[in-house]
Fold these 2 entries.
Entry 1:
Amino acid sequence: MCTAISFGEGLFGRTLDYEISFGERVLAVPRGIFPIGESRNRYSIIGIGIEDEESGTPLYFDGMNEWGLSAAALNFPGLAVYHKGGTEGRNTADGRLDAPAGALISYVLGLCRDVEEARTALSNIDVTDAPSANNMPAPPLHWIISDARASITVESVSDGLKIYDNQVGVLTNGPEFPYHMTRLADYMHFGPDRPKNRFAKTELSVYSRGMGAIGLPGDFSSSSRFVRACFVNEHTRAAKKGSARERVVRAFHVLSSVSVPLGCIISDEGHPVSTLYTSVADAETLTYYFTTYGCPSIRAVRLTDSILNGETIRSFELCSDANIQALN
């Protein structure tokens, strides 16, 4: 599950939909803290993830670096194919860098300032199936990487690493990215305004607002969430832009259109799935906002100078209790 969206104006966000928590936290990483091949991370990063106890490498589910480059990893079961073996950070004989799938976001955000630098770096990286977190198997993932101007989708599949220009700035799960883009054509006649009668010469009356999008997929499948996220993001972006705070709130509203209430999806093992957290990263203020399923109040952590130039990773727990304000 999961949906990621690049909202434009340097805003990037995602939902993480799953049946269990991994003990994830907000991780704020200073420059030069963890190894990447024969060097270390050039840039500071903030996002949600876990820390590998053995190597100390942060393993981000999503994050943003000090240049405003953002990325998210989304589940891609049955489709992700990686290079075999490999040791984390090892330079292969041909000078290429081995990156465990679970650490790819840390590598890209630690090395790159924008999407074009990320594209170049990925051309010299082999994504491997090496365990990247406390000997856990490599998760099946694909990725979206965005800056204020562009987005790319990255998929490691049976015939190699694919990098697609992502003009809509949206990613969900399988099938592969070109399928989702092709399917959007089924909905090109949708819009937010009053529909025109093209059905027949018979006079027909509009009886409700919102009829221009009748048939917009409302289920929680990856293909339906992709269409819905594209539609909602496109048309809310065309509305009044507002202040920086209003744009962040808008981004959370867009993501709420694809969030999963507990119990609406049941895993194959019989466990209920829900949106564990929702995040929005603001490249302009270098602020990372998040909510959790149990605590919908928006919380924020900023990449301050003390974090950028610090000496240790700082972590912040995700709130799980709703902050309900009684008015009487």
Entry 2:
Amino acid sequence: MILDSLENTGRFETLHPLFRQAFDYFRSMNLSKMEDGDYTFGEHDEMRLTISSFKGKNKSDAIIETHRKYLDIQIPLIGIEKIGWKPLDQLAETTVDYDEKKDIAFYVDRPTAFTKIYPGQFAIYFPEDGHAPGIGQGFIRKAIVKIPIEVVIEVVKDR
């Protein structure tokens, strides 16, 4: 997991070209005017932006999830979101087995750490990062950028 300020995306954009594309797309959009939903972008529409609005939930109601095909870049737009975390190799039992089409599995386990993410910040969750999003009070609006792992691996191998 990576947590930082949107002002510092340049540090991560140099690690991989898809991070630069993702953050450039995020900065170029007027997210306050966008409706909740899914938007594809990238050279081959390989990346996805999801805008989501919801009422924050209690820690006890947050469920750990993991993904195999995508990295998540979580960016709060309105409200403070707390996201629970526990490494994949310590997750013991699923409540919903991995769904390949939806690229998600859910777990019984409870997070071992929590991070508050404020508007103006972002967090990147890798496949080895179990994360329990949506914790907070009141109205939360966020953007989630999904970057496919296969593309990340292919570009890194070509370096």
